[in-house]
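WARN retry 2 of 3 for item q-0093 after timeout on previous attempt; input resubmitted unchanged.
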Amino acid sequence: MARIRPFALALCTIGTTLGAGEVLAQDEAPLERRPIGVPLDITQGAVVSRSDPTPYALSFRVAPQVRFGEGGVFRVGHSAAVTFTNPDWEVAVGARVAVRAVKVVLPEVGLLVVGDAAWGSADRWPLALGVIFDLDGLVRFGPWVTRDAGRGEWYVEGLLGADLVSLVGFFRGERHEEPEFNP
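OK item q-0093 returned
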C-alpha cells in the first residue's frame, strides 16, 4: 500500500498539469497576468555521498504552481517526479516553493530560488534547493542540490526545463508587452 500512494499522487499532479494545459488553450489573458505556471524539468548529476553502484541520478519533474505578486514573484505548488538513482526507478511527490530573487528586463526573466520537498516510494525524502535562471519560462537552467533524508545521500545535479504556460503562449504567438523606457 505504501508504494501505491506516491503513484496515485503523481497521477493527480499529471492530471492537474493536463487540466492547466486545457485551460491555457482557451485563456485570452495576457501571458504576464496568468496566475499559474507548470514547470517541466529534467535534473541529472551525481550522488556525491557514495561510490558504488555508479553514483548517477536522473529525474523528470512536473510542478503545477500558482504565482503571486507582480510578475509571479512568489510561486507555490505541488510537484511530482520520476527518479532514477542507480540502480532504482522511483516516484516522488511533494510541494515546491519558488521566489524570484532577481528580475532582469521583463517580469518573467530572472533568477529563481526554488525549494522542493517530496516523499518517495522507497523510503525516500528528497529535499532540494536550486538556483534557476528562468528565461521567460521558455528555458530554465541551473544547479540543483538534493539531500535525501531517508537514505542519507547528497545529490549534485544540473536542471534544464521549460514552463508549459510559456511554451503554449509562445507557440500561440503571444509575447510580453515591452516595458516603457524613460531615461
